[in-house]
């Protein structure tokens, strides 16, 4: 059995494990094998030659056997960005780069274990405006006003701040009522006397 240390790092700096996805954590233990690893031999060939010079110049470097992922190269992930939507399904993205043991950019990481660069988020339903019944009018005639409660809520009933709902769709919470003139409110108004011409 062999062991290794696995650290959560962000751009070459160790950070708390809570910043990394636990489902993507590499193994810390493995069974030892006595058979020689072919990838070690292939990786050794990288160190024997300058970058970009395969032993057989007639073969393209991208197809040469020394172009294999090295165990020293690892995928590094940045923090997840903000969700593109607050509800009804959005996406989060993060930077995923291949680096060697010294933190330098590298092109040869195992694509089969590359961490995800995006994931879905905030898939729950959007909050909606909910409103109660109109209250009593402030006057029985002559332009009164009445109000009602209008709130932004999740389908579960949780109340939210108004900015979580579409403000353009907000129902009225106040309106005029009993606009008819009051009976007996009409009266005569006198003006000063004027001489007849």
UniProtKB/TrEMBL annotation:
It is found in: Secreted. Coiled coil: none annotated. GO terms for biological process: extracellular matrix organization; proteolysis. GO terms for cellular component: extracellular matrix; extracellular region. Residues 41-64 are annotated as: Disordered. It comes from the Eukaryota. One of its GO terms (molecular function) is metalloendopeptidase activity. The keyword Secreted applies. Keywords: Repeat, Secreted, Signal. InterPro entries: ADAMTS_ADAMTS-like (IPR050439), TSP1_rpt (IPR000884), TSP1_rpt_sf (IPR036383). PROSITE patterns: TSP1. PANTHER family: A DISINTEGRIN AND METALLOPROTEINASE WITH THROMBOSPONDIN MOTIFS 20, ADAMTS A DISINTEGRIN AND METALLOPROTEASE WITH THROMBOSPONDIN MOTIFS PROTEASE. This is Uncharacterized protein. It comes from Hippocampus comes. The lineage of its organism: Eukaryota, Metazoa, Chordata, Craniata, Vertebrata.
């Amino acid at each position: 059995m062999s062991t290794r240390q696995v650290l959560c790092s962000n751009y070459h700096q160790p950070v708390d494990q809570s910043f990394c996805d636990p489902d993507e954590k590499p193994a810390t233990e493995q069974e030892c094998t006595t058979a020689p690893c072919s990838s070690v031999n292939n990786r050794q060939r990288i160190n024997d030659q300058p970058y970009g010079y395969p032993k057989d110049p007639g073969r393209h470097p991208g197809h040469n056997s020394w172009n294999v992922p090295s165990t020293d190269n690892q995928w590094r992930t940045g923090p997840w960005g903000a969700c593109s939507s607050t509800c009804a399904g959005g996406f989060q993205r993060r930077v995923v780069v291949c680096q060697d043991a010294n933190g330098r950019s590298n092109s040869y990481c195992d694509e089969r274990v590359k961490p995800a660069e995006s994931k879905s988020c905030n898939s729950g339903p959007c909050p909606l405006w909910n409103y109660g019944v109109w209250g009593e009018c402030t006057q029985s005639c002559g332009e009164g006003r009445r109000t009602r409660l209008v709130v932004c809520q999740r389908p579960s009933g949780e109340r939210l701040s108004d900015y979580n709902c579409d403000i353009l769709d907000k129902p009225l919470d106040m309106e005029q009522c009993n606009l008819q003139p009051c009976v007996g409110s009409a009266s005569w108004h006198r003006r000063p006397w004027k001489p007849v011409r």
